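Attaching the record inline, Q. Sequence:
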Amino acid sequence: MERNELLRRINTFPLIADELARDLLAGDFRSVFRGEGIEFDEVRLYEQGDDVRSIDRNVSARYGKPYVKLYREERELTVFVALDCSASMFAGNHSATAPSRFDQAVLVSALIGFSAERSGQRFGAIFFDKEPRAVFKPRKSRAHVMAFISAALQAHPKERGTNVNLAIAGAGRLLKRRSLIILISDFLSVGWEAELRGLSEKHDCIACRVVNPLDASFPNVGLVTIEDPETGQRVTVDPGSRAFRAAWSEGAAARAAAWQSACRHAGAAALSLSTAEDAVSAVKTFFNARKRR
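Structure, as predicted:
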């Protein structure tokens, strides 16, 4: 997809950000905080019915009367996107006008960013391929979201390979308080499952797997040479072969099932998003379903 068309779509997001903020984020406070996000507010005299465990012994001893600590729930949420900008995210468009995996990932990221900004939440991000790249520390502001989008529109892989594991680890080190983390990738990487499980124990994690229709069904275009964008390895195949098409489809189904199983065992929500889908509708439907649950 042309950058101008991608930017045109993104420019419409602020117009619908209020609705998206409610649908995408408001319903997630309960799942995100789970008793966290509690900050000390003040102390007051003990009243009948107060939990004795909340008595502040130091203050009570100082004034000779029982005082209890009062807390308030911190209603701010950090929303963080880990965005895969590896070579495979730019490869394999099924049509000249369709978005690539990375185009779709940028649309989702921009959607999340504007929704966070409109609801007054901090937004941050990290770009990665084989290594973690640019980091946008969580902040509140439209300018911060726009700076992220500008960087995303210019992003490209620095070297071959994808390391989802390092991106997850980087997000975990950066975010100290419980946050909503959206990991957007094609997940053509290995060894990330245990790291995602550890991240999900501390944060509310969503794994968004961006797929292409060509992943599951290869068109019969005669003999063709295809290249693995991550390794550079080339192979000539015959898509007219029933055996090839069956193996191609079965391989895609196996990868999808393995990813779903890994997310389930890690405790992360799983969103599979095709480049043939409308990003806004698909993501909105996903968050609405989470809110109902």
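The first strand starts at residue 38 and ends at 45. The chain has eleven helices and ten strands.

More tomorrow.
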